[in-house]
Amino acid sequence: MNYEFLSSTKLFCGMPPEKIKNALSCLNASEKEFKKGGIIYRAGDTVTEIGLVEEGSVNITVNFYCGTSNIFGHIAKGEIFAETYAAIPNKKLICDVVAAENSKILFIDINKLINDTCSSCGYHGIIIHNLLQISAEKNLKLSSRMMHTAPKTVRGRLLSYLTWQAAKNESREFHIPFTRQQLADYLGVDRSVLSTELSKMQKDGLINYRKNDIKLNNTLNSEEWL
Fold it and tell me: Of 11, 60, 104, 148, which cross-links 55 as Cys (Cβ 3.0–4.6 Å)?
């Protein structure tokens, strides 16, 4: 395990690498690798472990009975997933957790974290505090997605998402983590319509893009959001 990297993540914030090693031993942590497209958790599963992305990234996907699917969220390197379901006994997942690329996941038993007091590591309280903070931040992200899907037009949804990414990255130039299909699913729009609208926005001088690299220009006005 890369303890130096883990010490830089939000879950282990405030913990030196050598203490993380002790804590993970105490928590019965394990690692597993997944190929791109590999199912980490499947809808209907009950889970008892938090997943932390050590390498790669993960998509949270909701599948509907009609055969369509939407990406509900993207979990980047260093972020965690499944903590809410792991904390509720026998709660079944309503979504799939899928490797967006070749990935390595660290699994942590939440019952060991919450219920056991380990004198040898002494860092359970810090990890739990960090976990609560992460959960609060995720609630804000969920609110953000609701904001992005509120506009009636595809352009409005794109501008909401892209300006949010610019603010998040503190730059008008940034890289988005989704493919075109994944972005369309996230925004709840058709992929071909989304691609057409991106081309129109570039033609109108609102943005410049090459694949997933986006630049917002200074020509945006409130009318573009209608």
Answer: 104
Q: What is the pTM of this model?
A: 0.69
- Region(s) of the chain under CATH 2.60.120.10: 3-140
Each of the 226 residues of the chain gets a pLDDT tens digit; together they read 889 999 999 999 999 998 998 889 888 899 999 999 999 999 999 999 999 999 999 999 988 776 677 787 889 999 999 999 999 989 999 999 999 999 999 999 998 888 766 555 568 889 999 999 999 888 887 788 889 999 999 999 999 999 999 998 999 999 998 889 889 988 989 999 999 999 999 999 999 999 899 999 976 554 554 4
- Domain 3-140: assigned CATH number: 2.60.120.10
Q: What is the CATH number of domain 149-225?
A: 1.10.10.10
Residue type, 75: I
